[in-house]
Amino acid sequence: MLKQTFHCQRTRVYVLNGPNLNLLGTREPEIYGRATLKDIEKATAARAKRHGLKIVFRQSNHEGELVDWIHEALTKGCGVIINAGAYSHTSIALHDALKALDKPIIEVHLSNPKRREAFRHHSYVSEAAKGVIFGLGSTGYLLAVEAIAELVGAGTDLK
Ligand code: DQA
């Protein structure tokens, strides 16, 4: 399934979260679930640890800040997991920043945007991502860690 192996010098995976995801837990729980972003961070860090990976977990409501963090991942990260929230559907700037990144990128959405309003059906992030996981709630972040670990060969050739 995941054939290509990427080599990175660092074990750091950036997990970037876009606008309104700081409200998880109380924001439309029937769509996004009851887990808070802190809960997701803890679970994601624990899963990454199993693979000898460390996560840098961040959230911003500002597009430019997310762009800056993608640039940071260029030099300091070995992969990116991104839930860009509504910017997924609007941001060419995020698309371009991700395209500049020669590391595996996994896009995550808690909900399944394809089953929702038409304006959520297209994602600029998907076009830059290696893989996309959506509709599985917070489990999607854990599956994204598994995918990144396999793509970077964590636990095998990482020191
Ligand atoms: C989301 C889906 C987006 O359409 C929405 O704007 C979000 C959350 C998700 O995780 O399901 O903010 O990215």
Can you characterise this structure?
The protein is an alpha/beta fold and 159 residues long. The chain contains five helices and five strands. A five-stranded parallel sheet has the order 2-1-3-4-5, sandwiched between helices. 1,3,4-trihydroxy-5-OXO-cyclohexanecarboxylic acid is lined by residues 20, 83, 85-86, 88, 109-111, 113, 120.
- The number of helical segments is 5
The percent of residues in helical segments reads: 25-40%
Main sheet specs: 5 strands, parallel
Instruction: Classify the beta-strand content into a percent band.
Output: 15-25%
The ligands bound in this entry are: 1,3,4-trihydroxy-5-OXO-cyclohexanecarboxylic acid
* Poorly predicted ranges: none
Q: SSE string, helix = H, strand = E?
A: EHHEHEHEEH
Report the structural category: alpha/beta
Secondary structure tally: strands: 5
Distance between the termini: 24 Å
- Identify the overall geometry: globular
What's the SSE blueprint?
Blueprint: E1 12-17, H1 29-32, H2 37-50, E2 54-59, H3 63-76, E3 79-83, H4 92-99, E4 105-109, E5 131-134, H5 139-152
Parallel strand pairs: 1-2, 1-3, 3-4, 4-5
Helix pairs in contact: 2-5, 3-4
The protein binds 1,3,4-trihydroxy-5-OXO-cyclohexanecarboxylic acid.
The site of 1,3,4-trihydroxy-5-OXO-cyclohexanecarboxylic acid has 10 residues, from loops.
Summarize the structure.
The chain has helices spanning 29-32, 37-50, 63-76, 92-99, 139-152; strands at 12-17, 54-59, 79-83, 105-109, 131-134. The protein is an alpha/beta fold and 159 residues long.
